[in-house]
Protein backbone atom coordinates (compact mmCIF):
# COMPACT_ATOMS: atom_id res chain seq x y z
CA UNK A 1 0.00 0.00 0.00
CA UNK A 2 2.88 2.35 0.79
CA UNK A 3 4.40 1.75 -2.66
CA UNK A 4 1.07 2.46 -4.35
CA UNK A 5 0.83 5.70 -2.38
CA UNK A 6 4.36 6.69 -3.50
CA UNK A 7 3.40 6.00 -7.14
CA UNK A 8 0.22 8.05 -6.74
CA UNK A 9 2.09 11.01 -5.27
CA UNK A 10 4.88 10.80 -7.85
CA UNK A 11 2.47 11.21 -10.78
CA UNK A 12 2.71 14.57 -12.52
CA UNK A 13 -1.03 15.17 -12.37
CA UNK A 14 -1.10 15.05 -8.59
CA UNK A 15 1.68 17.60 -8.32
CA UNK A 16 -0.01 19.85 -10.89
CA UNK A 17 -3.24 19.62 -8.92
CA UNK A 18 -1.45 20.45 -5.66
CA UNK A 19 0.19 23.50 -7.23
CA UNK A 20 -3.18 24.55 -8.68
CA UNK A 21 -4.89 24.29 -5.29
CA UNK A 22 -2.16 26.31 -3.58
CA UNK A 23 -2.21 29.02 -6.25
CA UNK A 24 -6.01 28.97 -6.19
CA UNK A 25 -6.01 29.58 -2.44
CA UNK A 26 -3.61 32.49 -2.86
CA UNK A 27 -5.68 33.86 -5.74
CA UNK A 28 -8.81 33.58 -3.60
CA UNK A 29 -7.17 35.78 -0.98
CA UNK A 30 -6.30 38.34 -3.67
CA UNK A 31 -9.83 38.39 -5.07
CA UNK A 32 -11.36 38.54 -1.58
CA UNK A 33 -9.13 41.49 -0.76
CA UNK A 34 -10.09 43.24 -3.99
CA UNK A 35 -13.78 42.76 -3.23
CA UNK A 36 -13.63 43.57 0.50
CA UNK A 37 -11.02 46.34 0.44
CA UNK A 38 -11.49 48.04 -2.93
CA UNK A 39 -14.91 47.32 -4.42
CA UNK A 40 -17.23 47.07 -1.42
CA UNK A 41 -16.16 50.42 0.13
CA UNK A 42 -16.99 52.13 -3.17
CA UNK A 43 -20.30 50.26 -3.42
CA UNK A 44 -21.02 51.14 0.21
CA UNK A 45 -20.31 54.82 -0.44
CA UNK A 46 -22.61 54.79 -3.48
CA UNK A 47 -25.47 52.87 -1.86
CA UNK A 48 -25.15 54.39 1.60
CA UNK A 49 -24.04 51.33 3.53
CA UNK A 50 -23.49 48.56 1.04
CA UNK A 51 -25.31 45.35 0.44
CA UNK A 52 -26.11 43.79 3.79
CA UNK A 53 -29.48 42.15 3.76
CA UNK A 54 -28.48 39.61 6.41
CA UNK A 55 -31.26 40.66 8.80
CA UNK A 56 -34.03 40.42 6.21
CA UNK A 57 -36.43 37.59 7.00
CA UNK A 58 -40.07 36.61 6.95
CA UNK A 59 -41.52 35.23 10.19
CA UNK A 60 -43.20 31.86 9.74
CA UNK A 61 -44.72 31.97 13.19
CA UNK A 62 -46.88 34.54 14.95
CA UNK A 63 -44.50 34.34 17.93
CA UNK A 64 -41.63 35.97 15.97
CA UNK A 65 -41.46 39.70 16.71
CA UNK A 66 -37.69 40.32 16.95
CA UNK A 67 -36.02 42.87 14.67
CA UNK A 68 -32.82 40.86 14.07
CA UNK A 69 -32.44 37.46 12.46
CA UNK A 70 -30.54 35.93 15.37
CA UNK A 71 -33.20 36.94 17.88
CA UNK A 72 -36.01 35.91 15.52
CA UNK A 73 -34.56 32.42 15.14
CA UNK A 74 -34.69 32.02 18.89
CA UNK A 75 -38.38 32.96 18.91
CA UNK A 76 -39.49 30.60 16.16
CA UNK A 77 -39.30 29.60 12.52
CA UNK A 78 -38.21 32.24 10.00
CA UNK A 79 -37.61 32.32 6.26
CA UNK A 80 -34.16 33.98 6.21
CA UNK A 81 -33.81 35.16 2.62
CA UNK A 82 -31.53 38.12 3.39
CA UNK A 83 -28.33 36.11 3.82
CA UNK A 84 -28.94 34.43 0.49
CA UNK A 85 -29.45 37.78 -1.24
CA UNK A 86 -26.23 39.14 0.29
CA UNK A 87 -24.23 36.08 -0.77
CA UNK A 88 -25.76 36.21 -4.26
CA UNK A 89 -24.83 39.88 -4.74
CA UNK A 90 -21.31 39.24 -3.42
CA UNK A 91 -20.99 36.30 -5.82
CA UNK A 92 -22.05 38.43 -8.79
CA UNK A 93 -19.53 41.12 -7.85
CA UNK A 94 -16.82 38.49 -7.39
CA UNK A 95 -17.66 36.82 -10.72
CA UNK A 96 -17.51 40.20 -12.49
CA UNK A 97 -14.09 40.96 -10.97
CA UNK A 98 -12.74 37.54 -11.94
CA UNK A 99 -14.09 38.07 -15.46
CA UNK A 100 -12.25 41.40 -15.67
CA UNK A 101 -9.03 39.85 -14.33
CA UNK A 102 -9.18 36.97 -16.82
CA UNK A 103 -9.96 39.40 -19.64
CA UNK A 104 -6.91 41.49 -18.67
CA UNK A 105 -4.64 38.44 -18.50
CA UNK A 106 -5.89 37.24 -21.90
CA UNK A 107 -5.17 40.69 -23.39
CA UNK A 108 -1.62 40.60 -21.97
CA UNK A 109 -1.11 37.07 -23.34
CA UNK A 110 -2.32 38.12 -26.78
CA UNK A 111 0.08 41.06 -26.86
CA UNK A 112 2.98 38.81 -25.83
CA UNK A 113 2.07 36.32 -28.57
CA UNK A 114 1.98 39.11 -31.18
CA UNK A 115 5.44 40.29 -30.12
CA UNK A 116 6.98 36.87 -30.59
CA UNK A 117 8.80 36.68 -33.90
CA UNK A 118 7.98 33.67 -36.03
CA UNK A 119 10.73 31.11 -35.98
CA UNK A 120 12.58 30.57 -39.26
CA UNK A 121 11.47 27.55 -41.21
CA UNK A 122 13.56 24.46 -40.71
CA UNK A 123 15.74 23.51 -43.68
CA UNK A 124 14.28 20.72 -45.80
CA UNK A 125 15.60 17.20 -45.29
CA UNK A 126 18.66 16.16 -47.32
CA UNK A 127 16.72 13.93 -49.72
CA UNK A 128 14.23 16.71 -50.52
CA UNK A 129 17.10 19.15 -51.11
CA UNK A 130 18.82 16.71 -53.48
CA UNK A 131 15.61 16.04 -55.41
CA UNK A 132 15.04 19.81 -55.74
CA UNK A 133 18.56 20.21 -57.16
CA UNK A 134 17.98 17.38 -59.67
CA UNK A 135 14.68 18.98 -60.72
CA UNK A 136 16.36 22.35 -61.22
CA UNK A 137 19.16 20.76 -63.32
CA UNK A 138 16.62 18.91 -65.49
CA UNK A 139 14.70 22.19 -66.05
CA UNK A 140 17.92 23.90 -67.21
CA UNK A 141 18.66 21.13 -69.79
CA UNK A 142 15.17 21.24 -71.27
Automatic annotation (TrEMBL):
Function: Channel that opens in response to stretch forces in the membrane lipid bilayer. May participate in the regulation of osmotic pressure changes within the cell.
Gene symbol of the encoding locus: mscL
Location in or out of the cell: Cell inner membrane; Cell membrane
PANTHER family: LARGE-CONDUCTANCE MECHANOSENSITIVE CHANNEL, MECHANOSENSITIVE CHANNEL MSCL
GO cellular component terms attached to this protein's record: plasma membrane
GO molecular function: mechanosensitive monoatomic ion channel activity
InterPro entries reported for this sequence: Mechanosensitive_channel_CS (IPR019823), MS_channel (IPR001185), MSC/AndL (IPR037673), MscL_channel (IPR036019)
The name this protein goes by in its record: Large-conductance mechanosensitive channel
Primary location recorded for the protein, binned into one broad class: membrane
Record flagged with keyword DNA-binding: no
Quaternary context: Homopentamer.
Protein species of origin: Sinorhizobium americanum
NCBIfam families assigned: mscL (TIGR00220), PRK00567.1-4 (NF001843), PRK13952.1 (NF010557)
Alphabetical UniProt keywords: Cell inner membrane, Cell membrane, Ion channel, Ion transport, Membrane, Transmembrane, Transmembrane helix, Transport
Amino acid sequence: MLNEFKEFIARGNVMDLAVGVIIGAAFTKIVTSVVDDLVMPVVGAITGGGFDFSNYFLPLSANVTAPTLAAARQQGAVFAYGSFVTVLINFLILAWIIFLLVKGVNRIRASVEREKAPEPAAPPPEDVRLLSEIRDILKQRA
